[in-house]
């Protein structure tokens, strides 16, 4: 309504101005190079209005023309997208072939063609070096479809910095989004165990076993490791009964887990539970013979005669008499009871098989001295011992660092359950 009044008022003003100009026609004279143009003032005003109107129309036309923008036409957009996806595929192919430079080149082209999409950023982040990756990770975090991968990368970076607590939080975030991720389930158990959070680790282990993120035998072994570590803690807290119970359940779960067997037999020996100790010894020797177990074997029956001990050793090693630790135990107990022939046979078998170690030659030298006081032969064996294979020992299967004894976490690489009993050659295999 106001606008209408304004237009009526404007028309009235124009009419008044027009009639005034008509009443005062006047004349404009233009002189140029001898040319003379005489025209009424009203014509000049009309021409000026027409020219302004033309200019306005022209600029309007130009601006509407700009809005069409050829780059945004659907056909052009589809073409750019097609080219972008091609670049993306070329980039991933290059990355599979470990040609990172080509992957980065195609990734950057794809990024130009597929602006605001996560695909090219994902490729670039994968192809970049860890330091160059950060800029793309930040951009990728805004895309929900790649956030899981970003979190996994963050987890890896935190682990590399040894920031286990922050890494554990990131794992929980991932597991919230992907509760059935086997990778996350396994890692969360590993990290909780690495941090010594035994009860949390036990819960995570159950979840991982249920979804088959770990095998049934791994589940049993890990349960044994958790029980053993809790047994050690209970023992330190003077709760020996609970400690023994945990150690025994660890042996039951995995008789080949040497630390639990050693712990159980040591505890049983200390409380004179001889028959139970003998049972655990036999069971564990069958699964994984160990020299420290041979020492505990003697301590289980401290009052028996040398002959009785030799007979007991033969009986216990019946199922794996060719194992190097069995042969060493037989030779040792045979020498104590003067069964020279049996001692020699056990040790010679190891030499013939090529599996003799420093300890084998030491025992052979001892045999030569004790049997016939043959110092020359003993010296020969001692020389052979110097160049023989080293005895099996505790060593980290992840970083290869040797350890004095079993530890739940490797002191060098911090990994959980990687310190194992093995010979150098079997580690290299
Ligand atoms: Zn290690």
Q: Strand-and-helix sequence, N→C?
A: HEEHHHHHHHHHHHHHHHHHHHEEEH
Number of helices: 21
Profile the largest sheet.
Answer: 3 strands, antiparallel
| CATH-defined architecture of one domain | Alpha Horseshoe
| CATH class placement of one domain | Mainly Alpha
The strand line-up of the biggest sheet is: 4-3-5
Reported by name, the CATH topology of one domain is Serine Threonine Protein Phosphatase 5, Tetratricopeptide repeat
- Name the beta content range: under 5%
Report the strand count.
Answer: 5
- By CATH, the superfamily of one domain comes out as Tetratricopeptide repeat domain
Averaged pLDDT, please?
88
Principal-axes shape call = rod-shaped
Task: Describe what this molecule looks like in 3D.
The chain is mainly alpha-helical and 429 residues long. Among the domains are: 139 residues, Tetratricopeptide repeat domain (Serine Threonine Protein Phosphatase 5, Tetratricopeptide repeat), CATH 1.25.40; 38 residues. It is built from 21 helices and 5 strands. The strands form 2 sheets. It has a 3-stranded antiparallel beta sheet. Strand 3 and strand 4 form a beta hairpin. Helix 10 packs antiparallel against helix 11, helix 17 runs parallel beside helix 19 and helix 19 runs antiparallel to helix 20. The longest helix has 28 residues. The structure holds zinc ion. Zinc ion binds next to loops. The site of zinc ion has 9 residues, from loops.
């Amino acid at each position: 309504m106001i606008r209408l009044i304004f237009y009526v008022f404007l028309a009235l003003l124009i009419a008044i101005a027009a009639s005034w100009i008509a009443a005062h026609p006047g004349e404009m004279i233009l002189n140029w190079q001898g040319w003379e143009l005489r025209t009424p003032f009203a014509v000049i005003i009309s021409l000026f209005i027409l020219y302004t109107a033309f200019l306005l129309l022209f600029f309007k036309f130009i601006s509407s023309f700009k809005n069409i923008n050829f780059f945004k036409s659907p056909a052009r957009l589809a073409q750019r997208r097609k080219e972008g996806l091609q670049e993306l595929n070329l980039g991933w192919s290059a990355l599979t072939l470990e040609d990172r430079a080509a992957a980065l080149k195609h990734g950057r082209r794809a990024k130009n063609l597929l602006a605001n999409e996560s695909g090219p950023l994902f490729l670039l982040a994968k192809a970049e070096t860890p330091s160059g990756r950060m800029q793309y990770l930040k951009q990728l975090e805004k895309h929900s479809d790649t956030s899981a991968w970003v979190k996994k990368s963050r987890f890896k970076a935190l682990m590399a910095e040894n920031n286990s607590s922050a890494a554990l939080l990131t794992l929980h975030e991932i597991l919230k989004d992907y509760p059935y991720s086997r990778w996350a389930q396994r890692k969360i158990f590993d990290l909780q165990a690495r941090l010594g959070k035994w009860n949390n680790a036990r819960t995570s282990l159950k979840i991982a076993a249920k979804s088959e993120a770990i095998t049934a035998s791994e589940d049993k072994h890990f349960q044994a490791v958790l029980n053993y570590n809790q047994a050690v803690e209970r023992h330190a807290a003077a709760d020996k009964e609970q400690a023994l119970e945990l150690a025994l359940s660890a042996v039951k779960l995995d008789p080949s887990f040497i630390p639990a067997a050693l712990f159980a037999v040591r505890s049983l020996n200390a409380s004179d539970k001889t028959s139970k100790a003998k049972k655990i010894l036999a069971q564990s020797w069958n699964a994984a013979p160990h020299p420290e177990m041979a020492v505990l074997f003697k301590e289980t029956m401290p009052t028996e005669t040398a002959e009785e001990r030799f007979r007991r050793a033969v009986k216990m090693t019946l199922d794996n008499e060719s194992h190097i630790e069995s042969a060493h135990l037989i030779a040792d107990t045979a020498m104590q009871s003067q069964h020279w022939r049996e001692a020699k046979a056990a040790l010679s078998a190891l030499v013939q098989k090529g599996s003799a170690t420093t300890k084998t030659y030491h025992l052979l030298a001892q045999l030569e001295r004790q049997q016939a006081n043959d110092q020359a032969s003993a010296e020969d064996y001692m020389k052979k011992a110097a160049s023989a294979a080293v005895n099996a020992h505790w060593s980290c299967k992840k970083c290869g660092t040797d350890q004095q004894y079993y530890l739940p976490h490797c002191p060098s690489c911090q990994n959980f359950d990687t310190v194992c009993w093995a010979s150098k050659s079997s580690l290299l295999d």
